[in-house]
Model the fold of this input.
Amino acid sequence: MADLKKEIEAIKQSCLSELTIAETERDIKDIRHRYLGRKSRLNSILRSIKDIPPDERPLIGSLANKVREELEKATSESINRVIKSSVSTSPDLTLPTRPYRIGRSHIITRTTNEIVSLLERVGFEVALGCEIETPYYNFEALNMPDDHPARDIQDTLYLVDGTLLRTHTSPVQIRYMETHKPPIRMIAPGRVYREENIDASHLPMFYQLEGLMVDKGVRFSDLKGILEYVAKRLFSKDLKTRFRPSFFPFTEPSAEMDVECPHCRGRGCNVCGYTGWIEILGAGLVHPYVFESVGYDRYDVSGFAFGMGIERIAMARHKIDDIRVFYQSGVRFLTGL
Ligand code: PHE
Done:
């Protein structure tokens, strides 16, 4: 009797230890077959209970039944375990993928990158400035003294410590010239800020791309050549561009470049303010005062500078009639146009 009891315990232990190392459902079913099947030792013990002396029968019988129940439970738990782990470690590779949306760079980023690579091809190098500037870099060094109207609190967003959000990318010209010697071919894309009433063509934050070339004997025709090269590649061949005389304190002479309004083809509409043209940049030859403020010899070198409005260029290229859409319908601009 003691031997039978021991044997049942041993069956139990051996079955449980086999179950703990079983890895597949098939292994477990095989264990169940060997330990609990019709031809198993436990089954034969249960079937021969009647041959055991009556006083030992209840004890052995209940022990064998208890062990059988425990092992049934342990095997089904093991099966659950391997099913669960096989689900998490081996996904069904034949299933179709879930549909997902492919993103892309914002149209302002793409336009900027395109202009940057056009200018890199002709020797310009990208420089970065700061969005928070001092009045010196944003105004004074660019020949805009304290009483200049562009410094009006209406136009400029000042911070509490007297610094300001740059109103244009031109301060990068100064920072770059302070740390580099001519010859210079520099471009600086980035955000600029102005106190503006928001409408279809104005935002308090927009993007510019500054350009600066300084060397011996740089002429206005060099500026025109570079800008026409960029414009020809950005706009369709038949879209006209024009140069208009203008004024900036840091360039002399100064000009603005317009492109024919693609919405009305020059006839005049609300996008171009009924002028037939969209202004895309300001430019000119670097003012001698600017060279002096960075310590360059104004008689030795000359140069040109330009500042492009990225949103305006993107609007003209893609027939977008409201600047606000760039920053409202983010998802549409990021999934394609
Ligand atoms: N900084 C000028 C603006 O924001 C543009 C400009 C840049 C004009 C460089 C001339 C030269 O309007």
Observations:
- The chain has a mean pLDDT of 91.
